[in-house]
């Protein structure tokens, strides 16, 4: 077994349980058979990019965390905006624009 597949499978199990879904219900949402999905959780096989996209689209799964285990980035922009005092929203918007420009 591949160590990365085992780690991803463990994190995927943690995410599924956090959503309070059975393997059957979760695998159904990802269009996997329960057996195939169970193999992914056990690290016996990897998960496809297509299924990673489904995880993100359907469950808003943090793919960086799923693949690396890194939680340090998990402050979400939406949360920052909703928590920001109204008189500071313009400043926050400017900061986000500057950050966005760094990636262009």
What's a quick, concise take on this entry?
The protein is mainly alpha-helical and 104 residues long. 66% of the residues lie in helices and 0% in strands. The protein has helices spanning 3-18, 23-29, 34-41, 49-59, 63-68, 77-83, 89-102.
Q: Secondary-structure blueprint of this entry?
A:
Elements: H1 3-18, H2 23-29, H3 34-41, H4 49-59, H5 63-68, H6 77-83, H7 89-102
Helix pairs in contact: 2-3
Structure description:
Helix 2 (23-29) packs across helix 3. The longest helix is centred in the N-terminal third of the chain and has 16 residues, at 3-18. The model has no long low-confidence stretch (mean pLDDT 87). This protein has helices spanning 3-18, 23-29, 34-41, 49-59, 63-68, 77-83, 89-102. The N and C termini lie far apart (39 Å). It has 104 residues and is mainly α.
Spans of at least 5 consecutive residues with low confidence: none
The percentage helix is 55-70%
Q: How far apart, in Å, are the first and last alpha carbons? A: 39 Å
The general outline is elongated
Query: What is the overall number of helices?
Result: 7
Series of secondary-structure elements, N-terminal to C-terminal: HHHHHHH
Q: Please give the number of β-strands.
A: 0
């Amino acid at each position: 077994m591949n160590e990365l597949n085992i780690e991803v499978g463990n994190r995927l199990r943690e995410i599924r349980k956090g959503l309070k879904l059975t393997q059957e219900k979760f695998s159904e949402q990802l269009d996997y058979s329960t057996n195939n999905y169970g193999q992914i959780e056990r690290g016996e096989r990897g998960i496809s990019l297509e299924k990673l996209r489904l995880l993100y689209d359907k469950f808003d799964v943090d793919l960086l965390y799923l693949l690396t285990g890194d939680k340090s980035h998990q402050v979400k922009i939406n949360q920052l905006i909703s928590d920001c005092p109204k008189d500071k929203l313009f400043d926050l918007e400017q900061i986000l624009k500057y950050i966005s420009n760094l990636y262009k």
